[in-house]
Structure formats: C-alpha cells, structure tokens
Specification:
This protein is an all-alpha fold. It contains eight helices and no strands. It has two domains: 60 residues; 83 residues. 78% of the residues lie in helices and 0% in strands.
Length: 203
C-alpha cells in the first residue's frame, strides 16, 4: 500500500513539473491604431490647407493673418506623433507599409498647399531691393523739391507712381509666401519702415 501511494505521489510530482516546464502561450501582439491617428491628422491637415488657401489669397485679412502663429506648434506636435507611430509599427511590416503610404498622401497634400514658401534669404533679398528703390524714390523728390512743373519731373513722377503700385503688389505677394510667424513679423516691421521712408519724401 505504501509503495502504491509512493508511486501516486511521484506521478503527481512528475505531472506538476511537466506542467510548469511547458512554455506559456503568448497572445499575438496587436498593431497600434494608426488608422485613427491618421484620420485625425487628415482632418487637421484639411483645416491647415484651408487656412493656407485663404492666407495666400489675401494675407492682409486680419482673420487669417492672426492665425499664422497657431500652426508651428501644432505642426511640431503632429510630427512627433506620426514619428512615434512609425516607430511603434516596427514589428508590423504590413501595417507599417500601409501607414507610410497613407501618411505620404497627407504629407503631399500639405506640401502642395504650402507651395512656393519664401525662404529667409529670399525675404532679405526682397527687402534689400525694396529699400534701395525707396531710397531712389526719396532722392527723386529731394532733387525736384523746387521743380515740380518740368517735363522731366512729370515723366519721373509717372514712372515712380507705376513702380509704387508694382511694389505694393509685390509686398502683398511676398507676405502671402511667408508662413513662419517670426519671419512674417520681421518682414512686416521692415516693410513698415520702408513705407515710412517713402512717405517722408513728401515732407
């Protein structure tokens, strides 16, 4: 009887050891929900694209121009989120491929909407040329301060008025190409100084 009980005990111990040594089945990992992220990103992109269209159409509109400062931080936040999702999908090649494809579509839409955005170098060149023209404008009126009836003055005045209208259009166009808040603020301040210089020619 004792031998029988001993055999049962040994058998139970062997079954227990076998059960403990059997590898545990792990649940398959589920890919992160990239579709919801990109759905929200696409909605945000639509809002940003609509802003760019309105701003480029009329950068002097106070409603759209007041919104320029909103976007840089949001763009940075979305960049951080989309990069993090890309990293999180490293173990899901099929999902990552689909994610990259959809993300590229949204990115292209944003890039196309931004279009011909002015660089800092372009802005500086533009301001330099505008300021140089303003100096010529002031010099012309200074040279003809006491001579406003001669044919030379009338011809020069007509040319300057035409050029002035052209520069007004150029400033508006350039403003619409600047979507960086800091660059826009600097550009606005510099053009205001130049405009004041031009106005001083009549004093």
């Amino acid at each position: 009887m004792k031998k029988f009980l001993l055999m049962l005990l040994c058998g139970a111990l062997m079954l227990s050891v076998f059960a403990c040594s059997e590898p545990k089945k792990t649940e398959p990992k589920e890919a992160p929900d990239w579709e919801t992220l990109l759905f929200e990103y696409d909605e945000w992109a639509t809002e940003y694209v609509n802003f760019l269209i309105a701003y480029k159409k009329d950068p002097t509109n106070p409603v759209t121009s007041a919104m320029v400062g909103r976007w840089p931080s949001e763009i940075a936040e979305w960049k951080e989120q989309t990069d993090a999702m890309f990293a999180a999908l490293k173990d899901f090649p099929t999902e990552r491929s689909a994610y990259v494809e959809e993300l590229s579509r949204i990115t292209k839409r944003l890039t196309d909407a931004a279009g011909d955005t002015a660089t800092e170098a372009e802005i500086n060149t533009f301001l330099s040329e505008y300021d140089k023209w303003a100096d010529e404008y002031v010099a012309f009126f200074a040279a003809h301060k006491d001579d406003k009836t001669s044919p030379e003055y009338q011809t020069g005045l007509t040319e300057l008025m035409t050029e002035s209208a052209e520069w007004t259009g150029k400033v508006k166009t350039m403003t619409g190409r600047i979507i960086d808040p800091a660059l826009l603020a600097s550009f606005t301040a510099e053009t205001a100084k130049i405009a004041a210089k031009i106005a001083s020619a009549y004093n």
